[in-house]
Amino acid sequence: MKSSLYRWGLVVVAFLVALYALTPTILDWSDGALDGKPASTDGVASMFLEVDPTTEQITWTNVQPLTLGLDLQGGLLLQYHVYVDRAVQDQLTRMAGGIEERLREVQPDVQVEATHPDGETYIDVTLGQADDRKLFTEEFMSNFPSLTRSDTGSTTLRLQMDPNYIEETKEMAITQAIEKIRLRIDALGVAEPSVTRQGLSDIVIQLPGIREENIERAKDLIGQTAQLRFQMVDDSGTNQFFGQFRGQLPAGFALRSIDGGYFSVTHQDKEALQEFFAGRVADDRAIGYQFHPVYQDREKKVLDEEQSYWKTYLVYREAELTGEYIQDARVAVDQQFNRPYVSLTFFPEGAKIFAETTTEYTGQRFAIMMDDEVNSAPVINEPITGGRAQITLGSMQSYTEVQQEAQNLVIVLRHGALPAPIERQFETIVGPTLGQDSIDSSMRALLVGSILVILFMLIYYRRSGVISTIALTLNLVLIMAGLASLGATLTLPGIAGIILTVGMAVDANVIIYERIREELVVNQKPVRVAVKEGFDKAFSAVLDANITTGIAALVLLQYGTGPIRGFAITLLIGIVSTLFTAVYVTRILFDDWMQRTKSEKLSI
User: Fold this and answer.
1) For the CA atoms of the chain, what is the radius of gyration?
2) What is the pLDDT of residue 435?
3) What was the pLDDT predicted at 289?
4) Within the chain, which residues score under 50 in pLDDT?
5) Could you tell me if 32 and 452 are in contact, meaning their C-beta atoms sit under 8 angstroms apart?
């Protein structure tokens, strides 16, 4: 009797723990949607969540409710390729500058030029005198432990980057890109986003439940490399450079006068401009692009695509200042013109550089660029020494558009630039209607399948079928509780895993019941002995079937991605709960039944 109480105690504890784990999900589902927002935040719900009184934002504490995946609630799926080689090239370029700087610290009058050929993994150093090679001591090279020195001439040497460091840099670029993208998405306010690595250099992003009006904003926000650069515009060479194309421009291009008389080549398509200027710009110059929108209806944001165009700036390739020196960025509003802008505060070193630059180039245009696009190109009217600057945005855009653009810029500036350029490979938008259809179809399949299985068990195994039905119900509760405890996201493959687990659980019951029948009918054994031997003899077969399935699930978990891993996790949880319910719980129910009825016959 005492043994039976202990066995039942374990089942009750398992059920209560499962009920506790599922309570947040039940509360969330109380309004008919798993969206993290329950119908009421009072009563029992107050034990599982906290509500920010200011923003009314709900935060679930301890146990999280189940969330639906992209395929069930709709949303945005993106895949980006990260150009990790670019991260290595940028690192080598920075190292080349660092070598020159450190050599001049050791010997101020040294003549040195360190160059990194694009696409290569080494730095060539040219010295003014052969005797300067002695500057490359072990102590000096300890500042660049990833470079290996080799002499290539009396005044030249080559510093080769270590292959292991190259691979490490690539790995770091992927890891940092994932973190940066995740921070940007968090700032966007998307619930339960998924940012995962796929293959060597791809990133898959799932944004379930994202609102349709935020889709374009999310793509813009994620895709920005966000390399903020302050570059001087070549005012003295602009008109000569662009003026040379007068009368020679292909159809669709135009030579316009902008910013008080400076020439600019324009076109409706930025890519067309990029192709046109490829190979036409000196090595120390670059082209900056800025979109000039013209609206048919500004209030309704109807763009006149025929009149809108991209204009170009001739800028110095070398940046005077970069986003690395920015201490803070925030959106502010110009009280005079009632226009949002981005206010920047620099670190002390950045403030010093900014002050020196604006002092030296007073009266000239200063391009504030994000990647290769010009946000603004104001004229420096006077030296700016306070360590602050501002970026004005889109004078032709509406207040709302400028404010959103400013907020996006602040997000990427605060969370830093991506370590390498990324390119969108593909995107898929799953509509909420399609997601709801998926939910309805999968739940219908689960319901119909379960009912058919239960009917079969009741008809074929009669009262013993009731026991398997109870065990099967508890099995489903434990699976859902297990998923909720792990903070898992329920997807279509996950539901498929649950349905498969239902079949496996019934299969285990069938194996056990057939062994019991065999002991009763063929071997003519008493009921108690037949049940005992039926369970004992069937156990190895049930265990073997679940172990082999578990091995397959572990392989899927190790090598699969996204939905495949979700399927594997659901299957593994289902295997554990199936063994517990089909073998342990069912046996307790049989023993309790026989003890109470004292019957010499078994309905099976």
Assistant:
1) 34
2) 61
3) 93
4) none
5) no
